[in-house]
């Protein structure tokens, strides 16, 4: 299949960011509907799909962009700035399709039937499966199925057991969405529009050809991107989301502070207050520093895989650590912006409260758990028993 985007890195980045601009109006128009319906509206999903943004991380051989990890950060950042729920759903969909680089040809032929790029959702939290008849009998319930309502295919991580129940491997399996049961339980404080419902897979036999070994992660197709390993291949997605939403919060408070007046006596604009000027300047620098560090680390990782080497555990820890730091910094920045928004910021039509709520919920994701800082500290102390997926 021919990719929708140029091959050369700079031209690809430009084309992808132009594609984001092309869906801006549609995503903005769907913000209220996404919040109310607790999933992205059909028009937003259609716009992201037709623009090729769900294929951001899919192999070029399958018509995807196969963008480098830094370009991915910038694209996800741009979408999340417009609508956090759209940014979240788009990177989940893109991340799920990136894992198609590891699936056997038989799965790809069915998923890409008619040459059409599918939509997908995926989770790396493990469930259970039993090896059986050339495949894996899968049973279980998974949480945080972001984008599950518009996914045509669903991928999950399973720990495979033999008949005696002993661990026998770790695999990623892909199923048609028709094989799952969605539980309508996504009633939450933030990321409301992501449709991240629980779902159940009950007694489904997944053929061997619709799975791959998640520990080896040996790509069947594609270039160096697919040698980033775990968590490096997917962690950057949350970083792009975080800095995009936090930048939106800062821009919102700047706009509001110029006209918003506070005080019991002589009222002054928030923008005229030295304390606000101090906080704003500090927040801008913190966010830019966190973003810059993340890009620096991922550029280094990209150079590693382009040089033919897979990132080791220490580099994986560093990639995940900088993403966690970006997320925690972004939440701090958004909370400060919300603070200076005053009483009007609490209204549901004020973007400041939305940014805070969405980042608060995003910050509980396993990838950005602060336990990764412990691994980073061990790395600095010279430890070799590092676990980047702790």
Strand residue content: 15-25%
Overall 3D shape: globular
CATH topology of the largest domain: the name is: Butyryl-CoA Dehydrogenase, subunit A, domain 3
Number of strands: 9
- Give the radius of gyration: 21 Å
The number of helical runs is: 11
The low-pLDDT segments are none
Order of helices and strands: HHHHHHEEEEEEEHEEHHHH
The SS-based structural class is: alpha+beta
| Arrangement of strands in the largest sheet | 5-6-2-1-3-4-7
Task: Write up what this structure looks like.
With 390 residues, the chain is of the alpha+beta class. It folds into three domains: 9-103, Acyl-CoA dehydrogenase/oxidase, N-terminal domain (Butyryl-Coa Dehydrogenase, subunit A, domain 1), CATH 1.10.540.10; 120-213, Butyryl-CoA Dehydrogenase, subunit A, domain 2, CATH 2.40.110.10; 228-380, Butyryl-CoA Dehydrogenase, subunit A, domain 3 (Up-down Bundle). The protein has helices at 9-29, 31-37, 42-50, 69-82, 84-98, 105-111, 232-257, 274-306, 313-339, 351-362, 371-380; strands spanning 120-132, 135-145, 153-161, 167-176, 181-183, 197-207, 211-213, 261-262, 268-269. Strands 5-6-2-1-3-4-7 form a seven-stranded mixed β-sheet. Strands 8-9 form a two-stranded antiparallel sheet. The longest helix has 33 residues, at 274-306. The mean pLDDT is 94.
How is the secondary structure organized here?
Blueprint: H1 9-29, H2 31-37, H3 42-50, H4 69-82, H5 84-98, H6 105-111, E1 120-132, E2 135-145, E3 153-161, E4 167-176, E5 181-183, E6 197-207, E7 211-213, H7 232-257, E8 261-262, E9 268-269, H8 274-306, H9 313-339, H10 351-362, H11 371-380
Parallel strand pairs: 1-3
Antiparallel strand pairs: 1-2, 2-6, 3-4, 4-7, 5-6, 8-9
Helix pairs in contact: 1-3, 1-4, 4-5, 4-7, 5-7, 7-8, 7-9, 7-10, 8-9, 9-10, 9-11
